[in-house]
From TrEMBL:
InterPro entries: LTTR, LysR_HTH_N, LysR_subst-bd, WH-like_DNA-bd_sf, WH_DNA-bd_sf. Residues 12-69 form the HTH lysR-type domain. It comes from Shinella sumterensis. PROSITE patterns: HTH_LYSR. Keywords: DNA-binding, Transcription, Transcription regulation. The keyword RNA-binding does not apply. Belongs to the LysR transcriptional regulatory family. GO terms for molecular function: DNA binding; DNA-binding transcription factor activity. Signal peptide: none annotated. The keyword DNA-binding applies. This is LysR family transcriptional regulator.
């Protein structure tokens, strides 16, 4: 009897599981459809087929979001493992030469908030390539690539001054971030939270404040973006941040609030000219990820590759 049941159990389809995982990670059917290169209606049909096969609802839907049910949470764990195992097996036959260690550098904001998801997805596609990440300032990272201590690096640059060699991955808005309903921006002198010397956000912010004639003081100093966010959330200071870093408990401030416009900055990529195939594969994956982020800038922390 048990043998008969095992023989007649339906098989989970990897394409449908990929769609299921994409919806779970993005919380949106339309965004997931873009990720798996299908139409929203096709994605809906795939999930309907999966739910009918398993005999349970996998998502709770409302007008604004899609969240997993308890059964969906259970399936998500299996789905990720099945997809990863499939990728590993296929890569052994189709990409046997793609293995090795890649040395990648990134600034603090990209390295902590964007890269982990990008590299998790990269590992699913290239399980035999190990990526070692170094978090440093942009100038340090570019120098490390030039000296061949890194294979490639993501870096921040002032708009209009992209270093050579280098390519633009994304142009992002730089804003003043303050606590939502806070009053730090009203104080005089203005309390500012900044990074260490060499940070382009710091240089832009202090230059614009000086040119505008706004009195300010450095009230909080930290070399990591999490420290800046802590100062903002405590309403101790305002800080220059990339627009995508402004969380729900913060507000983007600007000229209407008496603060100078900070314009945009560039996120760039530099690859060692002698980089081998594994490093080039990482570079291509990063380019693809940032291309998707540029088309969907408000979803930068849910990178779809």
């Amino acid at each position: 009897m048990n043998l008969l049941m095992r023989q007649t159990l339906p098989l989970l389809e990897l394409d449908i599981l990929r769609t299921f995982v994409a919806i779970a990670e993005t919380g949106n059917f339309t965004t997931a459809a873009e990720t798996v290169h299908r139409t929203p209606s096709a994605v809906s049909m795939q999930i309907k087929k999966l739910e009918e096969m398993l005999g349970c609802s996998l998502f709770r839907r409302d007008a604004r979001s899609v969240v997993l049910t308890h059964q969906g949470e259970v399936l998500l764990s299996y789905a990720r493992r099945l997809i990863a195992l499939s990728n590993e097996a296929v890569s052994r036959f189709m990409m046997p030469e793609m293995n090795g260690v890649v040395r990648l550098g990134a600034p603090d904001d990209v390295g902590e908030l964007i890269l982990p998801e990008v590299l998790r997805r990269f590992a699913e596609t290239y399980p035999s390539i190990a990526v070692n990440v170094s978090i440093e300032t942009s100038s340090t990272l570019r120098r490390a690539v030039a000296e061949r201590r890194l294979d490639l690096a993501i870096f921040n640059a002032t708009d209009g001054t992209l270093p050579v060699p280098g390519e633009i991955l994304l142009k992002e808005q730089l804003v003043w971030a303050g606590k939502n309903c806070g009053n730090a921006y009203l104080k005089n002198p203005l309390p500012v939270s900044v990074w260490e010397e060499g940070c382009i956000w710091r240089a832009r912010a202090l230059e614009e404040l000086s040119q505008s004639g706004r009195d300010f003081r450095v009230a909080y100093f930290c070399a990591h973006h999490m420290g800046q966010r802590a100062a903002i959330r405590a309403d101790l200071a305002v800080a220059p941040l990339a627009r995508f870093l402004v969380g729900d408990d913060m507000v983007a401030l600007g000229e209407k609030d008496g603060l100078p416009d900070l314009g945009h900055y560039l996120i760039g990529l530099v690859v060692n000219e002698e980089a081998e195939a594994p490093a080039q594969a990482v570079a291509d994956y990063i380019r693809s990820a940032f291309a998707r982020m540029e088309r969907r800038p408000m979803d930068m922390l849910q990178v779809a590759c």
